UniProtKB/TrEMBL annotation:
Annotated stretches, region: Disordered: 1-37, 49-108, 416-444
Extent of Low complexity compositional bias: 97-108
Catalytic activity, reaction form: 2'-deoxyribonucleotide-(2'-deoxyribose 5'-phosphate)-2'-deoxyribonucleotide-DNA = a 3'-end 2'-deoxyribonucleotide-(2,3-dehydro-2,3-deoxyribose 5'-phosphate)-DNA + a 5'-end 5'-phospho-2'-deoxyribonucleoside-DNA + H(+)
Name of the protein: Endonuclease III homolog
Organism: Coniosporium apollinis (strain CBS 100218) (Rock-inhabiting black yeast)
Pfam families, per database record: HHH, HhH-GPD
Coiled coil (residue ranges): none
Amino acid sequence: MSTSRIARGTSKIANSVSSKSEPLRATQGRTLMHYGFGAEHPVAAGKRAVKQELGDESGSELSSVPSDLDENLEPVDGIVTSLHKRKRGAGTPTSETTTQKDIVTTQTPPRKRLALGVEPDTVAANDKAKKSRRTPAKKIVGAHGKVKVEPPPNWEEVYNLTKEMRSKVLAPVDTMGCESLAEGYRSPRDQRFQTLISLMLSSQTKDTVTAAAMRNLQENLPGVCACGLTLESILAVSPTLLNELIRMVGFHNNKTTFIKKTAEILRTSFKGDIPDTIEGLVSLPGVGPKMAYLTMSAAWGRDEGIGVDVHVHRITNLWGWHKTKTPEETRASLEAWLPRDKWHEINKLLVGFGQTICLPVGRKCGQCVLSERGLCPGAVVGKEVRRVKKVKEEVVGGKPVKQEVEVEVERAVKAEDVNGDAVPDMEDVGGPPQSRRKSRTLAS
């Protein structure tokens, strides 16, 4: 009853002003909005729908109201929103000149708008992000309990594109990797020993530094019969001089001890040669699974496993091939499905990729084809700044004073974050994070 009375009152107001001059149209629109009847009001929409269904739209009580009355008007004192609250973004008029970026940024949540807004082409960035979902390898149990691992669906495309990118750029591992540091004119036994020593030196050390240390040993290590890097010269050299020759590598003190003990074990237990089994190699001091598998491949030419270092572990997790916590877990995961003919090359492939494009800090996702084609969930598509509050204690005037410090921290936004699949990592994006601090004194 009340709705019908209001509708009749509205019709009278519309008929009374229809014969007046054009400037009154704005007043008429505001009057209708005062009563809560706009173009989107549910009562008006319901009446219009009934008339359309009956085939008599001209009989609508609001048919005499011009369609553009409230097109450019604002609600008066919030009356419209108080009578009927709309969902955010619903019923918002858009002009013909509205761009696709405006549409995306008004219809997406704040986190997605932030991630999408950093790309020049917002819609294209959104499309790429939708493709960048993690699709790891899956274990499938057969009828007789046999477990089969199904590889990631796009792994071959990702692998081949990475090989193509690597073929166009020269990485330090290509010229100074451990496989290429042994002297070619030495005997096979001495070459195998030099390969093992280079891998022992490479732990926690860049390839360029490892190459310099190896060159220092090969040229300046005194030998029994002739100078050079051999098992006999390592046994004869003093720990002090050996430590001095490899001082540029990381943890050189520990590596000096490991190399001296390894030389003694090789002389007494392996007839002066390096072991030809994984078990024998990992029994040596300072030799882990990664070094053992790489040594077997480079020194003995047998691919019995994948040498997984920090680059292989980090990049394959970024690709979403698996979700592992340690390099050993990554090795087991890869060996379960990766074809054996790729076990030798994948280490050098991804190490060089991690040295040139997919860097540990400040990845060059703008130069990566995988990011361009939406194949890497870990691709950095932008950055966001968050404020973090911390309580800091300082001594002022001899008394401890607690201060609340507000720090703005820069976070990397990955492609997978746009889909809500993960939380962005704390990571530097192309430079040091910008931070500003605001503090206020608290009670001590």
